Amino acid sequence: MLQTFSSPISSLLDARAEGHSLPAGLYTREDVFEADLEVFFRRHWICIGLECDVPEPGDATVVDIGKTSLILLRDDDGGIRVMHNVCRHRGARLLDPGKTIVSKLVCPYHTWTYELSGELSYAPHMGKSFDKECRSLKPVIFKSVGGLVYVCLSNDPPEDIERLVGVMAERLAPYDIANAKVAYESDVIEQGNWKLTIENNRECYHCSANHPELCVSFVDLDFGFDPDALSPEDRAQAEEHFSLYEERTRRWEADGYPSAAVEQLVDCTTNFRTQRLIISGAGESQTPDATAASAKLLGTMSRKDLGDMHLWGHNSWNHFMGDHAVVSIVIPLSADKTLVRTKWLVHKDAVEGVDYELEKLTNVWIATTEQDAELVARSHAGVEDPAYVPGPYSPFSETNLDKFASWYIDRMRAHGY
Question: What's the pLDDT at 2?
Answer without folding.
Answer: 40
